Amino acid sequence: MADPKGFLNHGREVARSRPVEERVKDWNEVYVPGSLLPIISKQASRCMDCGIPFCHNGCPLGNLIPEWNDYAYREDWAAASERLHATNNFPEFTGRLCPAPCESACVLGINQPPVTIKNVEVSIIDKAWETGDVAPRIPERLSGKTVAVIGSGPAGLAAAQQLTRAGHTVAVYERADRIGGLLRYGIPEFKMEKRHINRRIEQMRAEGTRFRTGVEIGRDIKATDLKKRYDAVVIAAGATTARDLPVPGRELKGIHQAMEYLPLANKVQEGDYVTAPISAEGKHVVVIGGGDTGADCVGTAHRQGAASVTQLEIMPRPGEERNPVSQPWPTFPMLYKVTSAHEEGGERVYAVSTTHFEGDEDGNVQWLHMSEVEFVDGKLTAKPGTERKIPAQLVTLAMGFTGTDRENGLVEQFGLELDERGNIARDADFQTNVPGVFVAGDAGRGQSLIVWAIAEGRAVAAAVDRHLSGGSTRLPAPIGPYDRPMTA
To answer: Are 352 and 373 in contact, with CB atoms under 8 Å apart?
Structure first.
């Protein structure tokens, strides 16, 4: 193990953030470059090398966390990178974006602040890129089998990389103009700079994966034609149907889904626009939805120069400490979280519901009307006499997603069955009702975390490889399609 007394000698330290007044003026990642490496060895030494490391169960990838903590403590970066990549294709993504259910399951976290697993992870992979320890893994021989992957988010990319390395010829189809899915256009640059995606794409190209951008299956290519071209198809198109807010005034100009707003800001960073077509500059901004996507809208509005930013959440404010009865260790608790975007300003309002919008004579939204809500007989109910309105010249809806896209024809043309939640139904081998067509990630699971998407991508690759080879595979399958996070 690392230092047997590490957790006794060292407290938890995390990456330092750049000053708010500095970082809101640019779109670079919020953390101080290079601030982790001087402290990461001590932080890795806090890992207790538990007899039963529950962090393995908290992480659906089954990351070998005590092992690479030990290597990081000893500053054996090459060995740490090898162990990290043994279970995770893209640790630079999860190390920056995952909410770290592994840390919630850390045994040390029972009575102390848990090990900074995310910070150790991102330090290892950044060091690996710096030292050249990340290289293409070209297959020794080709199988002669072909696979189409629909969607280039984390699930699609993980599946494509695993299948390419198994010797299959893989083509990834992405309807956007660049590879990456929501990693590219849904995650703001200040949370993850897109250079991290770009160099992974180049690695995958070198391994043999082919990419087709600007091609939407169902519209540009019929799903039935795609199936005829390939021996297997993996649908990893995400759950992109956004939940709407059907209240009076929803039709007013200036009210947008978060995924209409966020990609445009990212396209400015890609050089496609000088200024975003939908901008918060000088406007009173209201973000409806208290999750991570809502926080992304908050941080984006700050950088665009909003006059004010208010984030609304219909549920009561979560507690700041784990409830040992309803959310016991090692489950992933729902806690009050202050993200980097919240540190930058704005107001957060809990337990409120939007009743209607009010506009001006030109049809532009100007006010948002809301009331407080409370639970009555298990249902959220408006509290009489609490109605009020706040200025709102730009409103973003960040209330989650309800299922995969049904409008492009993909589901209908394949003849896919859906489950009761609007996701594409699948069996225990990730296969849909159509033989040879598999589904992974949010398209099958529903809206979830990036770490679950990568785990599904790896698992569906094993299922496809087994299907193509006639019953055997050497690819790992960390989870099954019906696995869910630990709950009480």
So the answer is: yes
Distant-in-sequence, close-in-space partners of 325: CB < 8 Å, separation ≥ 6: 488
- In the block, residue with structure tokens 């966390």: 65
**How far is 223 from 85, CA to CA, in rounded Å?**
33
pLDDT tens per residue, range 183-196 = 999 999 999 999 99
pLDDT tens track for 401-459? 999 999 999 999 999 999 999 999 999 999 999 999 999 999 999 999 999 999 999 99
Query: Does the predicted model carry a pTM greater than 0.90?
Result: yes
Cis peptide before 435 (omega within 30 of 0): no
What does DSSP assign to residue 140?
A: S
Residues 468 and 457: their CA atoms lie apart, in Å, by: 16
457 and 157 Cβ atoms separated by less than 8 Å: yes
CA 33, CA 17: separation in Å to the nearest integer?
9
CA dihedral 368, 369, 375, 379 (to 10 degrees): -80
Q: Taking a C-beta distance cutoff of 8 angstroms, is the pair 118, 103 a contact?
A: yes
What is the bridge-based pairing of β-strands 394-397 and 308-313? unpaired
DSSP 58-123: HSTT---HHHHHHHHHTT-HHHHHHHHHTT-S-HHHHHHH---HHHHT-GGGGTSPPP-HHHHHHH
Provide DSSP, 257-271: EHHHHHHHHHHHHTT
